[in-house]
Amino acid sequence: MGSRTSPISQPIIIRRAVARDAKRLTRLVRGSGAYRGQYASAVAGYRVGPDYIEAHRAFVAVDADEPGGRALGFYSLVLAPPELDLLFVADEAQGRGIGRLLVAHMQSEARAAGLDRVMVVSHLPAADFYHRVGAIRTGTALANPPAVPWDRPEFEFRIPSE
């Protein structure tokens, strides 16, 4: 995924994404180094639109020290069925704990929504990340050509009640 850098040193705010975030979230998806080469077709033309942001629980991690808050990563939680639909961290921000912060935030949101588990169909290069942050491998999502011509690991986050 990206090079490993130092842990988070700047203040990070995780806030609900709004329609005006759509273009920069789309840039995070399309610019992800994890989707270069053989995986490029999965995000070619992909768009995180204002309608998507309004329909789902999308949250963005921003650098609190920058005017306008530079987007460092984001995720989207779908409630029915419970699924972590998207999770991206900007390439230059990877290895600093932002992905872990986003997962912890997602788990808190899932708990608040009364969910006891959240599924994620992982991109192959992200599988180790999900394992490291506590997701349990549950199966395999079969290829769905032409959009996704490869099998992907399925994981589940168990959300304990507080």
TrEMBL record:
PROSITE patterns (UniProt xref): GNAT
Domain N-acetyltransferase: 12-162
Domain of life: Bacteria
Gene3D superfamilies: 3.40.630.30
UniProt-listed CDD domains: NAT_SF (cd04301)
InterPro entries xrefs: Acetyltransferase_Butenolide, Acyl_CoA_acyltransferase, GNAT_dom
The protein's name: GNAT family N-acetyltransferase
